[in-house]
Specification:
single chain, alpha/beta, two-stranded antiparallel sheet, globular, binds NADP nicotinamide-adenine-dinucleotide phosphate, NADP-dependent oxidoreductase domain-containing protein, oxidoreductase activity, AKR
């Protein structure tokens, strides 16, 4: 399957990428994890048309990157788009450079497509962090740089120190998580050519949603699942692409299917206006 992309002046990303948080363990490596099964799942996703893999040095303390490295070893590097993130405790100049090299070694690749600051550090100055990020681009270690969990205000501050475009902002954004919509970050990104990459795009897991009846109504109308409706709502927005962890084959299939049809504009509007913000989507 060919997955469509969204473009800014500088960056082009598939509308759906593979998330890898909790692959190989949570914050630490899980020694009982089904590594081989997860490697196979990543390969299955790539064979099904997924090109963008999102990871981070912190996921399973580097073990997620190791598993991705094994999964992609037989694929043509040029056909893949690999994003990883430097944890905020590593935002000092030397640490950023070391983290990037360590990620490359774990992933077994010569360069990163996209390198993100995982979250802003309240005390380490952007000037210092971006000195390293700029150098990584200059040396060809990374093709593009970006950030994650940044507000419009933080983006505006950071860009003063970046010699290269801050190409994307990876944020928690879904029908039920709309903080970045309310605080103007989404609009700021659109206006400034910064692609929004939505994580947990299908909503949080947890207790049943108050908005369930609206999702259920939409799911019935489109003959889709509630998660598919929720994912569709995110990726149908201008300047927004999504990520999903989808290790189980049925989740991969369901999420890929969500790329093949559209919500009508009046349903997009209803979901935007009527879905109760701050509740969880559970099915
Ligand atoms: N920048 C950040 O601070 C940040 C924070 C959180 C996440 N992220 C990134 O964003 C990615 C996505 O976020 P996430 O993993 O937290 O949430 P997610 O993509 O919503 O995945 C959460 C769970 O939903 C399941 N799932 C996937 N598709 C489904 C479907 N169609 N129906 C029902 N369940 C489905 C997955 O199961 P299976 O995997 O078992 O199939 C997974 O366990 C992460 O993996 C990570 O790469 C970034």
């Amino acid at each position: 399957m060919i997955i469509s992309t969204k473009k800014t002046k500088v960056l082009e990303l598939p509308v759906l990428g593979l998330g890898t948080y909790r692959i190989g363990g949570d914050h630490e490596r899980d020694l009982h994890n089904d590594d081989d099964g997860q490697i196979q799942s990543i390969r299955k996703a790539l064979n099904a048309g997924i090109k963008h893999i999102d990871t981070a040095e912190s996921y399973a303390a580097g073990h997620a990157e190791m598993l991705i490295g094994k999964a992609i070893a037989d694929f043509d590097r040029k056909d893949l788009f690999i994003t990883t993130k430097v944890s905020r405790r590593h935002h000092h100049y030397k640490d950023v450079l070391e983290s990037a090299q360590a990620s490359l070694a774990r992933l077994g690749i010569p360069y990163l497509d996209l390198y993100l600051l995982h979250a802003p550090h309240p005390e380490i100055p952007f000037r210092e962090t971006f000195k390293a990020m700029n150098e990584l681009v200059e040396k060809g270690t990374v093709r593009f740089i970006g950030v994650s969990n940044f507000t419009a205000v933080q983006l505006e501050q950071a860009k003063q120190y970046s010699q290269y475009p801050i190409t994307c902002n990876q944020i928690h954004y879904s029908l039920s998580a709309r903080d970045y919509e309310r605080d103007g970050t989404l609009e700021y990104c659109r206006a400034n050519g910064i692609l929004v990459v939505a994580y947990r795009a299908m909503g949080d897991e947890g207790t049943p949603a108050v908005g369930w009846s609206l999702l259920e109504e939409m799911a019935k109308k489109y003959r889709k699942t509630a998660k598919q409706i929720a994912l569709r709502w995110v990726i149908q927005q201008p300047n927004v692409v999504g990520l999903a962890k989808m290790i189980q084959p049925q989740h991969l299939q369901e999420n890929l299917d969500a790329l093949t049809w559209e919500l009508a504009s009046e349903d997009m509007e209803r979901l935007t206006d009527d879905f109760p913000i701050g509740v969880t989507i559970n099915r």
